[in-house]
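New to this. Please check this fold:
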Amino acid sequence: MKFPYKHILSRPNKKTDKAVILLPGISGKALTDRYKDLEVALTKSDFYFLRFDLWKSVKELESMTLEEIHQAIDISIKFMQSIGCKRIGFIGKSFGGGILLTYPHKYIKALVLLAPAIGFDKESNINKIKNKFGVFVTSSKGPNLFKRRRHSN
């Protein structure tokens, strides 16, 4: 399968079925060096790491629908499955984390949300995610960053 977006796929040194896909913040820039340390850490820990430019600017992002973004996430999952990845997780930064809260997580095994933008869409799946992964710390302001706990799946 050919991946239709400009991307970087970092491969671990040994064969694995684990992958992490990055969904960046509103500024995008998934292909810059800002994620180089994360790339090195993940590939050293035997994960594939996919990052791609779904939007290049705020103006371009504003022209997209939530459904279009969800379709791109679907494509990224299918792409990773096509190279043998069965255990797929996402890292969502800010706006990307908020988008992941709205995405139905049928094939996602883990989520890391870094300061997720919440409350921008009534379609949030936050309770489904909380029940599936059991990893949220809540405060009076709503969900916050993860507290690492094992889930039962």
Summary: The helical segments are 36-44, 58-62, 66-82, 95-101, 126-133. Confidence is low (pLDDT under 50) at residues 134-153.
